[in-house]
Model the fold of this input.
Amino acid sequence: MPKLLSLRRLSKLPPAMLPRYNPDVLVPGIIHIGCGVFHRAHQALYTELALAAAPGDWGIIGANLHHRQARDLLLAQNGLYTVLEQGPQASTATLIACLHDLVFAPEDATRLPYLMAQPPIKLVSLTVGENGYCRHPLTGELDLAHQDIVHDLEHPMVPVSIVGTLVAGLRARRLVHGEPITILCCDDLPRNGVILKNLVIAFAERSDHDTAHWIARNVAFPSSVAERLAYPADAAALAEVRTLIGMEDAAAVSAEPFKRWVIEDNFAAGRPQWEAGGAELVADTVPYEQMKLRLFDAACSMLGYLGHGAGDEHIGQTMADPASATLLRRFLDEEAAPALPQPAVYDLTAYKAQVLARLTNPHLAYRCDRIVADGSQKLPQRLLDTVRNNLEKGRSVQFAALAVAAWMHYAGGVDKNGAVTDVKDAMADSLRTTAQEDATHVVDRLLRIERIFGDDLPRNAVFRTALIRALETLRRDGSRRTVAEWTQTAI
Done:
């Protein structure tokens, strides 16, 4: 039986996979909070490639606030794991050796702030999810009533929220030596660096004015756009990794071959040479962010909700349906691309083709039940801004309306037989539908949720009519038949 991947067995790997630096002496310069599948297949991979090109003190301390499983798996392998890139024709495995240590914050709430204060740490990056920042649902500002923020303002030395943790670490850094540092958000939030800076300073102003002033002068908050589909390695993928590396790797992750990372070039204390792995350093990330959110992320949401309604396990199955593929292509061409508010930073024709190619990868195991989670947080920037622009310009909103109606159908939490289903959303209770509600009532009730639809979309008769028609059809005919009908009749 193959042995478990570890540092002492490193020499047993195929020579081409060996790191081009010595992991044993790698000094950590980065703390990454949210050391899940996406980080391990994306930012950690870029750091590995940067170290191969230009060795330096850029090892990563991975940390999680809520789940310990990744920590336990990775510690058993000395932080080593492989990224299995599954392309249409073949798979490749890349060894990641730059994870220096792993922390499960709830075991010791003081450890992360202590580590942030250490002089070698120059950068803290984050992938904690859109819901992880304790933002107010209407204003987008720090939610002072959130239970974690209330706790952290009362107990700043033992924080539980990401914002409280960052402020505790920055305060410790100010008191110990005062060296500057960069906080790099990699989550799908618009202008994520600006948002995070505002949240952190808002918290600091209520807990420690001196630290708030120091943060404003000494901490950089660049925005970034991170793009890749990554998912836990299933049994087949783990077996493929075993064949490729000759060892067991219980911490392996799977990913599509495509990856992109666009980063605002605004760092306070240096950074790895991420451009060696293909990262793009730019002055303004907003056009890249809008293109990703409104084309690729919107496509994933559309396929996720329609595929989930059809009983598909992953969106690759949904894209295998010719009508679904046609629907997505028409949405991109007729609604999403024309509504982009700024000149495209890439060739839009090429980018749309890239989106379609990525989503038709037969090995893409991106699960629908994962995509549909937390739609109340995702739809506004993925689909509703496109709807607003097209309504203003008198263009079609039929395909986006179908995607939003599919979300409403999912969020209602009732299947076609009237049975209650599980809805993964922070607003699930307020979204839930009864079997007796007709489509018009459901649409009108959900449209009144201002934090999702604002105060403008509920008043738009064109959008409301399209939603009612779509939801009625989904309820009557099911997802697959509705997609076929919509593709043929939508104008």
